[in-house]
Amino acid sequence: MSPWNVIFIFNNIIILLNNFLAYESNKVRRPVFYSFSAYEGL
């Protein structure tokens, strides 16, 4: 394997991990954010 192949594969893995983590944190944060904004509105 050439170093470029390794770099490319690592890059793809990192991008996928970032997307997954962003999606997971959004899923967790959204209900909290909505309930917090509803609480602020009271």
- Using only C-alpha atoms, the radius of gyration works out to 18 Å
Mean pLDDT: 76
Question: How many E strands?
Answer: 0
Distance between the termini: 60 Å
Strand-pairing-aware structural class: mainly alpha
Strand content: under 5%
Largest sheet, strands/sense/barrel = none
Provide the helix percentage: over 70%
Uncertain residue ranges: none
Enumerate how many helices there are, as a single number: 1
Order of helices and strands: H
> What is the number of independent domains?
1
Shape: rod-shaped
Descriptive overview:
Keywords: Membrane, Plasmid, Transmembrane, Transmembrane helix. This protein is mainly alpha-helical. The protein has one domain. Helix content is 93%, strand content 0%. The radius of gyration is 18 Å and the shape is rod-shaped. The N and C termini lie far apart (60 Å). 0% of the residues are buried. The model has no long low-confidence stretch (mean pLDDT 76).
